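Archive maintenance. Older records in this collection stored only the sequence; we are now back-filling the structure field for every entry so that each record is complete. The fields below show one back-filled record exactly as it appears after the update. Entries are processed alphabetically, and Amidohydrolase is next in the queue.

ARCHIVE ENTRY
Title: Amidohydrolase
Organism field: Shinella yambaruensis
Length field: 285
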Amino acid sequence: MTVTIAALQMCSGTDPVRNVETMRRLVREAAAKGAVYVQTPEMTGALQRDRAGLRAILRTEADDLVVAAAAELAAELAIHVHVGSTAIALADGKVANRGFLFGPDGRQVCTYDKIHMFDVDLDNGESWRESAVYSPGAVARMADLPFARLGFAICYDVRFPELFKMQAQAGAEIISVPAAFTRQTGEAHWETLLRARAIENGVYIIAAAQAGMHEDGRETFGHSMIIDPWGRVLTSAGGTGEAVVLAEVDSAAVKAAHDKIPNLRNGRTFTLETAKAPAKGGVAA
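Back-filled structure field:
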């Protein structure tokens, strides 16, 4: 079954109201071009590095503006709307980096909380401690859509191939990777990682990204893209500015990739041993 899917590229600021209006406009544009599934980037609601500023705009899931708008759009347009993620206030005082999927009737299909926290120290003094604010998820998630089984990941999750392999072995045909990749890491690894996850697992990868200079001072890499199960980039946006990128996907291409290279079936269990080098003049044990 061939359908059109879309990834939206945004440059979310610190005001959720403005960001929601941008999301509405881009989702409608994607639907008008035939998309039956539309994905928004990580942190669609706001990119706000300042903790006090973030907490000032936080809402619970029941009151969140992005969540409400996405449900309305899905019902209005009769499509699947996937909020890549947005910040959600939790009862324990922490924050979830949470994705939401809504069906064509506007009902919530499922949510996914980002599992792996972006705690890194990069070159030129760039440092991030996502775990200081966000509570990591503990459940991998998939959803059965009319045209494919969809798996979920968010941004830094892309560096953990075991998450993707687990989902592919369980029948995922598309895996989503909405992101707000930094420019530094994006230039080095973004496309390589996405294509590797597609090739390793024989799945489509759809990655809606934040792009450009943001109000909170960070710069994100953009280049939202959709990749096929053979690792080919079907469509890609630039490094700055809003964009709607679309591609046709067909679950038959997933089967074809698995038939050509059945690595998911050919994997074997094994043990790992470490040999100890002999001391000078001795022999190995």
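Update note: The domain at 2-266 is CATH 3.60.110.10 (Nitrilase/N-carbamoyl-D-aminoacid amidohydrolase). The chain has one domain: 2-266.
Entry marked complete.
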